[in-house]
Design brief:
binds S-adenosylmethionine, seven-stranded mixed beta sheet, alpha/beta, 224 residues, Rossmann fold
Length: 224
């Protein structure tokens, strides 16, 4: 396992952009994007206009769960972090269609965003849904939940904040359960895996996993 945070947890996919997604990026991006700034800590209050709790999501993909959760929780602020451009375009379109106002997007590597932009002990929650599982042993060092990186993620959670992780890969679920359980400053809210959280809408990767008959493994930890 590797604590080197410069190892990328993703490979940029070249997914085709629809014309509508391209237009959304150009026209709506400036309204909802938070630019990556390596030397400025993000001021959530300035971003959302009040001192509300803020929840981050790493790797929202096409963003189906992201805008729905934000819409259903107007009292919170949400930060979606993703590198996949077509997904960002799609999420922007859904945000406008459903008038979602409490969600901002950072189009950048979440590891660097956590390292350089998010203030320590500042988030009320962190969502990681179906992260790339990197199943080969030689690629385990690219996992988002890995030793050396998980400490960085946890350091940005405020006391009492939750870390909600979902995967369809049993081995990655087990790996993450063991790693999170031995990470200082975290406690499991359940004995082992968490029950399905009814408030979480289905994501694209979840629909695929369920369609292929795979089970879902959920973890709900809390910052102490
Ligand atoms: C397997 S997909 C899952 C997408 C979505 N959560 C879902 O359930 O449908 C993982 C996503 O995480 C994104 N990702 C991985 N590492 C990332 C990072 N360091 N920063 C931002 N996004 C990342 C990838 O671009 C990809 O879209």
């Amino acid at each position: 396992m590797s604590g080197d945070t410069s190892i990328r947890t993703y490979v940029l996919r070249t997914g085709r952009m629809t014309e509508a997604q391209k237009r959304a990026l150009e026209e709506l991006g400036p309204r909802y994007f938070v630019p990556f700034k390596p030397d400025a800590r993000l001021d959530y209050q300035a971003l959302f206009g009040d001192p509300r709790p803020v929840v981050a999501e790493i790797g929202f993909g096409m963003g189906q769960a992201t805008w729905r959760i934000a819409l259903e929780n107007p009292e919170a602020g949400y930060l979606g972090i993703e590198v996949h451009t077509p997904g960002i375009g799609k999420l922007l379109m859904d945000m406008v269609e459903h008038d979602v106002r409490n969600l901002r997007i950072i189009h950048h590597d979440a590891v660097e965003v956590f390292e350089r932009m998010l203030p320590p002990a500042s988030l009320s929650g962190l969502h990681i849904f179906y992260p790339d599982p990197w199943p080969k042993k030689k690629h385990h060092k690219r996992r988002l939940i890995r030793e050396g990186l998980v400490e960085l993620l946890v350091s940005r959670l405020a006391p009492g904040a939750y870390l909600y992780f979902v995967t369809d890969i049993e081995e990655y679920g087990q790996w993450s359960l063991e790693l999170l359980a031995r990470t200082a400053g975290l406690r499991n809210r359940h004995e082992a895996f968490a029950p399905h959280q009814d408030w979480r809408p289905e994501t694209k990767f979840e629909a695929r996993a369920l369609g292929d008959g795979r089970a879902v493994w959920e973890l709900m930890f809390e910052k102490t």
